[in-house]
Amino acid sequence: LVILELACAMMLLAGAGLFGKSLYFLLRAGIGLQPDHLAIMDVLLPMSTYKSDPQTLAVSRQIVDSVQALPGVQSVGFASLGIPMSGNGNTTWFRIIGRPWHGEHNETPERDVSPRYFATLGAKLVEGRHFSDAEDSSKPQVAIVNRAFVRHYFPNEDPIGKQLTHLSKVDPIEIVGVVENIREGPLDIAIPPVLYIPFAQSVDRYFSLVVRTSQDEHSLIPALRAAVHRIDPGIVPIGGTTMVDRINDSQSA
User: Fold this and answer.
1) What is the Cα–Cα distance from 20 to 45, expressed in whole angstroms?
2) Is the pTM of this model over 0.90?
3) Are the C-beta atoms of 42 and 235 separated by less than 8 Å?
C-alpha cells in the first residue's frame, strides 16, 4: 500500500511539474506590445451618414483629434479587422510578385491600421518605416509585415521593397516595414504571418480605437465615448475596456 501511494504521488508530482512549466511559459508568452495604460474601444459609423471612403476617413481623423485632446492621452491609433488578443480575424489571399505562381493561394491575416497604431501599442518597428498620413488610395499601395511573415515568406531575403498583390487585384503592394510579432490571437497558439495595410488605403466604417494614456486607463473609457459623441451623436461607441483586462479575461490566459 505504501509503495502504491508513493508511486501515485510521484506520478501526480511529475504531472503537476509539467503543468506548472507549461503555465509558466504560457503566461510569459511574448505579446509584442506594452499593455499597461492602454484603453480600447470599438467605433461604428452609420452607413446613412458616412457613405463614401473620403467621409469615413475624414471623420476617423476627427475622432483621433478629439481623443488626442483628452487629458493624459499620449497617443491614439486605430485598426479595422481586429486588434491584439481579438483572434486572427479576417484573412487575405496574396501572391509574391516576381516569383513563379501557378494559382496557389497564400492566405494570411490582414489588419488595416492608422499611422500611429504601432507606436500607440508600443510595438517595436524592426526594420523599415511606419505608414505616413499621406498614404491614401491615391498613392502607391504599401504594407508592413510581422517577423513571422518574414520568417515564412522571406527567410533568407530582405523583405523591404518586395512586392505583393491581392489575388483579386493587379496593383502591387510594396513592403515598407517589419514589426515585431504582435499577439493578435490567443496566447496558446503560434503567431501567424500578418499583413498590415494603411487604413487610408482600405477604409472601413467599423474600427477599434487604441489609446495610450499617462493616467488610469479605466477612467478614460467614459471620456472616449463622450469624445466620439462630440463629433457626431450618431456614431456608435461599442464596449470599452483596457488591454490588460482583455488579456487577463481571455480564455487562454
Assistant:
1) 45
2) no
3) no
